[in-house]
Amino acid sequence: MKKKVLRSASIILLGTGIVGLSWATANYNHVLASPIGIEKTKVDSSNPKTVAKKYFDAFLANDIENMINYSKDVNYLDEKSRREGYEEFKPSHLESYEIVSYQEARNDKIDILVQYKYSDMDFYPKLPYSIIKDELGWKVLIKPLIVNLNKNSPEYGNVKEGIPMYKIKLEGK
Question: Do 1 and 135 form a contact (C-beta atoms < 8 A)?
Fold first, then answer.
């Protein structure tokens, strides 16, 4: 089976000849903890819509610093492995994104749907994300997703939760 890595916020793509883990391959880890000697940039995370826009703009531009600043990624166990995973990844055919819906779930959580446009795909389903509020402010929550792109499958276009990369790495040892 041919492998193709597509970055789309921790996504495993299943389809005819396409299998990929976003950000990189299945070798990485999560959590926001600044390594000693590296100072975090102060960011304004008081407005959830602004945070989402800044994160997805950074995602599109492969701006690792702002991707880290505006998100919490449960695929990685620490910032070092997260940074390594992000740095290894190079964007693949992602042209644009659009946040197509915002829905407040709770005072500290907003669910959004994001539509990506890839130059090499005619169809790509909308992906669910959450913007969550913690003691540091609002962050886009990045979780692993499985996207079925097999046109012959009755579940074509379905999106479901996946397995964090650090668990895949541990299982692959």
Answer: no
Using CA atoms, how far apart are residues 16 and 153, in angstroms rounded to an integer?
9
DSSP string, 97-161: EEEEEEEEEETTEEEEEEEEEETT-S----EEEEEEEETTEEEEEE--EEEEE-TTSTTTT-EEE
Q: Tell me: the pLDDT tens digits for 41-61? A: 556 778 999 999 999 999 999
CA dist list (Å): 158 to 124, 129, 147, 151: 10, 15, 6, 11
CA quadruple 83, 144, 110, 100: dihedral sign: positive
Rounded CA separation 46/127 (Å):
24
Q: Which two tokens stand for residue 148?
A: 């079925």
How far apart, in whole angstroms, are the C-alpha atoms of residue 25 and residue 155?
24
The pair of structure tokens assigned to 169 is 């790495």
Could you report the per-residue pLDDT of 72-108, keeping only the tens digit for each?
999 999 999 899 888 887 668 899 999 999 999 889 9
d(CA 144, CA 164): 6
Q: Which pTM was predicted?
A: 0.73
Structural domains of the chain ordered from first start: 27-142 (3.10.450.50)
Asked whether 66 and 53 are in contact (CB, 8 A), the reply is: no
